[in-house]
Amino acid sequence: MVETGHFALVLAFALSLVQMLVPLVGARTGNQRLMAVGGPVTVTGFALTALSFTALASAYAGSDFSVANVWENSHSLQPMIYKITGTWGNHEGSMLLWVLILTFFGALVAVFGNNLPATLKANVLAVQGMIGAAFFLFILTTSNPFIRLNPAPVEGRDLNPVLQDLGLAIHPPLLYLGYVGFSVCFSFSVAALIEGRIDASWARWVRPWTLVAWMFLTGGIAMGSYWAYYELGWGGFWFWDPVENASFMPWLAGTALLHSATVMEKRSALKIWTLLLAILTFSLSLLGTFLVRSGVLTSVHAFATDPARGVFILCILTLFIGGSLALFALRASSLTAGGLFHPISREGALVLNNLFLTTATATVLVGTLYPLALEALTGGKISVGAPFFDLTFGPLMLPLLAIVPFGPLLAWKRGDVIAASQRLMAAFALAIAAMLVTGLFIDGGSVFAALGVGLAVWLIAGALTDLAVKSGAGSVAPAVMLRRFAGLPRSVFGTALAHLGLGLTLLGIVGTLCFGSEKILTMRPGETVELSGHTLRFEGLFPQKGPNFTEDRARFLLIGADGNANGEISSAKRFFQARQMATTESGIRTLGLSQLYLSLGDEGNDGSVVVRLWWKPLVTLIWGGALVMMAGAAMSLADRRLRVGAPARRRKPAAALTSPT
Amino acid sequence: MTRKQKRLSVIVAGLAFLAAAAGLTFYALGQKASYFYMPAELATASVPPGQRIRLGGLVENGTVVRGSGATVAFSVTDTQKSVKVTYTGILPDLFREGQGVITEGAFGPDGVFVADSVLAKHDERYMPKEVADGLKAKGVWVESKSQ
C-alpha cells in the first residue's frame, strides 16, 4: 500500500506536467482537443494524490513503523484519532495535505468550470498544474513521506504531545483550504494576464473562489488561535508570532480582494488592482508556507529543519511570485483600465477599505520579515512583538473599523454621506451609550476600553442598521418590511453577518484585554481562591493514567454563593513516556460568554502547587465572531447571482424591489 | 477638476497615507523591537534599566531558587558570564537547570533582570535557535548526538 502511494504520487507529478503544458499550448494555438485534455488530467491527478494520501493515512492508522515517517511521528498506544491526524502532524505529511488540497481545488475548477471560456479554463488549469508540479517535485525530492526503514522498528517515537489534540484534526486542514484556495484566484489572474484580456465577468468567476478560501482561512486562523489559547497554557489568544502572521497576511490581503472584486464585478473598475491583489494574496500564502515549512522560524510548526527544503521552497517562492509579477508588469498596461469614479460612493468606500487593509498587510509583513532580514544582513537579533503591532497595526485598524458601517449604506456611483449618517444615527447613539456606560459605570473601564466597546457596538449596530434600512424600516408597514427582509439577496445578509462577526470579535478582544483579571499563587489542598467574584477550592492532585501518558490531575471545585459546589475545573500535568516530555493541560470552564482559565505550575513537596488563574470576560466572542464571519461568507456563496453556472432566473418582483447591492 | 487632476489628487492622498504608515512603522521598529543578548554581550552593550530586551542562555546549575509564592530566581549563563533573573509566574514544562531558555523583560535598578516571560521549547532535543547560535559562536556548543 505504501509503495502504491509513492507510485501514485510520482504519477500525479507526471500528470501535473501534462496539465501545465498541454492545455497551455492548446489555448495558445486554439486547439480545442489539446485544451480539453486539461479537465480529465486534473481530475485524475487529484484522484492519484488522494490515493497517495490515503496510503499514508492508512500506514499511520495501522501503525506501520517500517515507514520512517510513521515511526518518527506515531506510537501504537496513541488513540486512533491522533494516529490519523498524525498523518499531517509532521512536515512530509502536511506537505502532502497541501498538494492534496491544491489538486482538489484544481479538480473543482475542472468539474464546475464548464461555462468558462475554453481558453480561460485551459490556462487556469495549466497554472494550477505549474504550482502542483513544483510542490510534487518538492515532496518527492526533499520530503518524501514514503521512505521505508529496514529493519522495521517495533515501536514508534510518538507524535509531539503538543499536537496530540483535536485541534490538529481541524486547524491544518481548514488553514490549508484557505491558503491553497487562493491559488485558484492566482491562477485566474495569471490566466487573464496570459490571455491579455480581463472583464467584469472575470470578477464574477473569481469572487466565489475568494469567498471559499476566505471562509476557510478565517476558520483556520480562529481555530489555530483557540488551540494555542487552551493548549499553550498562557491564556493568550494571539501572540503576533511570525507563524500566526504568516496566516494573517493572506487573510488581510484576501479580505481586500473580496471587497475589490465586488467593485470590479459591479462597476467594471479596479480591474488591474484586483488582479494584482489576487496575485499578492496567493504570494503571501506561499510566503507563509515558506516561513513555516523552511525552518527559518523556530516554532511548534517547524517540525524539522533541513536547509535543502528551505532553499527549494525559496526557489518555488521566487519563481511564482517573481514570474507572476513580471508577467503582470509586462501585460498589465495592455489590459483596459476601468473608469474613475466619484470618491463618495460604495466603490469609493471599498477603495478606502483596500487602502487600509493593504497598508495593514504591509506593516505586518515588515514586522514579520524585518527581524529575519536584519539577522541575515547584520547578524543582529531582534524580536518584534505585540508592542510593535499595537503601534502600527492598531492605528490602521481603528479608522477602518469606524468607517465599516458606512460602506454598505452608500449607493454605487454617487453616495450620500449625510443620508447614510442619518440612517446610522441610532447605531451611533447606541455606540456612544455603550462607551459612556463602559467608561463611567464599569470597574476597570479605561478610555481605551470605552473606545473599544463603543467601536464594537458601532460595528454590530451598523450591520443591523444595514439590514433594517434595506428592508425599508421606517418607511413601510412592518408586514411589508418583513417580506422585504426575507427577500433580500443573500449577499446582503453575507455582508451584514461578516461585519457583525467583526464587531463580535472586537468585543471579545476588548472584553478580555480590558476587563480580564489574573492571579498567580501557591495553593494547598483545601484552600480557596477568589477571582472576579468566582471562588475556587483546590481539592488536590490525583494521579491518572492515559493511553500513552501519565498525569497528575489537579481538581478545583467552583463554589457558588450558597457555599455549595456547582462545577469543577481540572488542569493536569501530563508526562509522555515515549518522548520523555511533559505538557500542561489547562482547565477551562465557560460561564456564559466568559471563561475561567486555569493553568498549573510546579508542584511543591508538601502537596502544594503553583496555580495561575485567569478570568476572561467575553473571550468566547473572539472565536464566535469568526464563526459568524464564516457564516456570512457561506451566505454570500449561496447567493444565486454568484453561483457559478446557475441559470440567470428571473427574480421575483419582491426581490426586484430591493436596492442593488 | 479635470479627470487628470482628480486622478492625481487620489494618488497624492494615497501616497501621503502610505508615507504616514511607513513612518510609523519605522518609528515602531526603532522603539518597540526588543534586542536579543547573551550574558557576555551585556558587558559591552550598555542596556539602560527599563529597556525591554530578550536575554538568552542556559539556566545555570544550582542557581534556581523557588521563593515564597510563584516567584523564582535563577541565573542565565553562556558559560562566560551570568545574569541574575527573577520571574513571577508559571515556568514552562521544560524549564530546568542546564536547559536553554529565552527570557524577556528589563533590568531593574538593582541590576537584576526582571523577566515577564520565559520560553523553553516544547521539544526535548530543541534549543532556542538564538541560544544555540550564540553558544556555537562562543565555541561552547556541544552537538547533541542524533538518534
Brief synopsis:
The complex is a heterodimer of chains A (661) and B (147). With 661 residues, chain A is α+β, with helices and mostly antiparallel strands.
Sequence-ordered SSE layout with sheet pairings:
The complex is a heterodimer of chains A (661) and B (147).
Chain A: H1 2-29, H2 32-61, H3 68-73, H4 80-85, H5 91-112, H6 118-142, H7 167-195, H8 200-231, H9 242-267, H10 271-293, H11 307-331, H12 346-378, E1 382-383, H13 386-403, H14 417-423, H15 425-441, H16 447-470, H17 478-487, H18 490-515, E2 517-523, E3 528-531, E4 534-545, E5 549-559, E6 565-576, E7 581-585, E8 587-591, E9 594-603, E10 609-616, H19 620-637, H20 653-657
Antiparallel strand pairs in A: 2-10, 3-4, 4-5, 5-6, 6-7, 8-9, 9-10
Helix pairs in contact in A: 1-2, 1-6, 2-5, 2-6, 5-6, 5-7, 6-7, 6-11, 7-8, 7-10, 8-9, 8-19, 9-10, 9-12, 10-11, 12-13, 15-16, 16-18, 18-19
Chain B: H1 3-32, E1 34-37, H2 39-44, E2 53-59, E3 65-66, E4 71-77, E5 82-88, E6 100-107, E7 113-119, H3 129-137
Parallel strand pairs in B: 1-2, 5-7
Antiparallel strand pairs in B: 2-4, 2-6, 3-4, 4-5, 6-7
Describe what this molecule looks like in 3D.
Chain A has 661 residues and is an alpha+beta fold. Among the domains of chain A are: 424-515 and 620-646, no CATH class; 517-616, Tick-borne Encephalitis virus Glycoprotein, domain 1, CATH 2.60.98. Chain A contains 20 helices and ten strands. In chain A, helix 5 packs antiparallel against helix 6 and helix 8 (200-231) runs antiparallel to helix 9 (242-267). Chain A is globular, with a radius of gyration of 27 Å. The two termini of chain A are 53 Å apart. The model of chain A is unreliable at 644-661 (pLDDT under 50). Chain B has two domains: 1-33; 35-137, Nucleic acid-binding proteins (OB fold (Dihydrolipoamide Acetyltransferase, E2P), Beta Barrel), CATH 2.40.50. Chain B has a five-stranded mixed beta barrel. Chain B is elongated and about 75 Å long. The chains are: A alpha+beta (661), B alpha+beta (147).
